[in-house]
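Journal club prep — side note

Before the paper discussion, L.F. wants everyone to see what a predicted structure for a comparable chain looks like in token form. Sequence:
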Amino acid sequence: MKNILIVLLLLPLIGLTQTLENIDYISPFHNEVAAVKKGTEWAFINKEGETVIDFRNDLVLTKTDNENYPIFNSERSLIASKKKGITYFGYIDKSGKTVIEPQFLNATNFKNDVAVVLNLVKKQLGGNELMKNVVSYHYFEVVIEKDGKINQYLTEDPIHITLTKEKMKNTPVITSKLISNNLVAVKANNNKWILKKIK
């Protein structure tokens, strides 16, 4: 009698399997997860087909194998958020939790636990009676670690910008490239390359 009772209690749970239907695209696996698309939203599944991050619309697509889809690398995936018409980039972990808030003007996927981002800096210039708060914005190309901490600056001179949606119609371009576990190629003003070691 006990065995029949246990079987009756477990029977509904045995039948609970997750089925994803009406999927528009399924990517190859990267970092043990694959991206799946339904409509305009993306989710991530594990190798058992279980959804590990539910469908959302803030994941950033990466061109991989002549296709565009979000990926995980070094346990991080890019997300984007618009504020006052300007796109900012950040990262989530494999639970879907935002671990680095969208704050960068552009960002690469992580590679070997580091990423290259455009770090925005706001500088208060003062003010007067007519203009109470006068600020200046500029950015640097920097290498960040998985927690968002800046590892090192790649550009010495700041790049000044006007931070309005009218002036920022396109995302600024990252010119530096991670080329190995400990090397980054930085494009100089003369269009030549400088190799730097990642600290």
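L.F.'s comment for the group: The chain has a mean pLDDT of 88. Keep this in mind when we get to the figures.
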